[in-house]
Design goal:
Blueprint lengths: L1 E3 L16 H4 L24 E5 L25 E5 L2 H6 L2 E3 L4 E7 L22 E8 L2 E8 L11 E2 L4 E4 L10 E8 L2 E3 L26 H6 L6 E8 L5 H6 L3 E2 L8 E11 L4 E7 L5 E6 L7 E11 L9 E10 L2 E11 L3
Length: about 350
């Protein structure tokens, strides 16, 4: 079985939520010195966190990321670094300064997890949630949004070095999932850190497919190589499971007990394309195929999709030993992303 998000996840509307920028800058000539950006989150990319949305490069009502892919949404001006689940939010995933700078403004005290699409009590002016802006000089700034309530470690006027702790990833403001919205600006205008250049003749947000120097340090740029699709979560459960269960891990099991009614394996991936399929295989301790299931091809781009498959407890009980499971995303018949886990029967 599978479930998916049929369109882009829209965690924030940042063009309406630049809660500090307008007061900080006056339009002026583009200056040459651009910061070289480090990673603004301290997490394992591709395992514990991933880029969910990029800057929207399309000037109209459609949306395209810098590769011309669909990992963005209309009007999105930043890069969203998503963490895998709410357990990680509670544990605390650090947000760090991407470059040395001075703290211009901060906001803290907003609750996490309050945003509900089309039913939000959070005002547009506070859509960024808890966060801050760093001034890097020469007209360049970085903005950090949706941070965890009470986590900000800096104050207005503080001077911070690259890599300094700013706080923790949260889900405050207009955020449907825990993530950091990281936004770069040049003289008050949003810039795409994957393609932006300091040269005055270079647009801050280039058309998709147009390469630019980019602002990331070389080592960080390699870490941030475009990855879609990407497996974000896998786990075992004792029955049916949904997206909310994956986020909360409330139904995830770590051991198989003899009295459990079923064994299910699930996976969630981001960035699926039309034609992609999800496949789940569970191998029993004796090496036989306990479960094997492949979903129908996707009919349109999916920002996120999940699938699960399993079986009820055999009449003679669970086999002792390890059950090995794999969740895969298939494209044109080949595996493009996968993750495997094992679970043991407790004695």
């Amino acid at each position: 079985m599978s479930a998916d998000a049929a369109g882009p996840i829209v965690p924030c509307m940042m063009r309406a939520a630049l809660f500090f920028l307008a007061a900080c800058f006056v339009a002026g000539p583009v200056l040459a010195e651009a910061p070289r950006l480090g990673l603004p989150v301290a997490c394992a990319l591709g395992t514990d966190c991933a880029v969910q949305n990029y800057v929207d490069t399309d000037p109209g009502t459609a949306w395209k990321d810098y590769t011309c892919g669909a990992m963005t949404y209309d009007g999105h001006d930043g890069t969203d670094f998503r963490i895998a689940d709410l357990d990680m939010l509670r544990a605390g995933i650090p947000v760090v300064a991407a470059a040395a700078g001075t703290v211009l403004r901060t906001r803290d005290g907003m609750a996490d997890g309050q945003y509900r699409k089309d039913a939000s009590t959070v005002s547009e002016e506070r859509a960024c949630g808890n966060g801050l802006i760093l001034d890097h000089g020469d007209g360049w700034t970085t903005q950090y949004c949706h941070m965890r309530k009470g986590s900000l470690a800096v104050h207005s006027g503080d001077r911070v070095e690259a890599g300094a702790l700013l706080g923790f990833i949260g889900q405050s403001g207009w955020a449907e999932f825990p993530h950091l919205h990281f936004e770069v600006a040049r003289n008050g205008e949003p810039a795409d850190p994957f393609t932006a250049d300091a040269a005055p003749e270079t647009p801050a947000i280039a058309a998709c497919g147009v390469s630019g120097k980019g602002l990331w340090r070389d080592d960080v740029a390699r870490l941030l190589a475009y990855r879609a699709p990407l497996v974000l979560n896998t786990g075992f459960a004792a029955g049916r499971i949904g997206m909310d269960d994956i986020d909360s891990r409330a139904r995830t099991i770590q051991r198989l007990m003899q009295d459990m009614p079923a064994l299910v394996f699930y996976g969630r991936a981001i960035g699926l394309s039309p034609g992609d399929r999800q496949r789940i295989v569970i191998i029993a301790p004796d090496g036989s195929a306990f479960v094997e299931n492949t979903t129908d091809p996707e009919t349109r781009p999916r920002v996120q999709a999940m699938a699960f498959a399993g079986k009820k407890r055999p009449v003679d009980g669970w086999q002792p030993g390890n059950y090995r499971a794999t969740y895969q995303v298939l494209r044109d018949g080949r595996v493009v992303s996968e993750r495997s886990q094992a679970i043991a029967l407790s004695r």
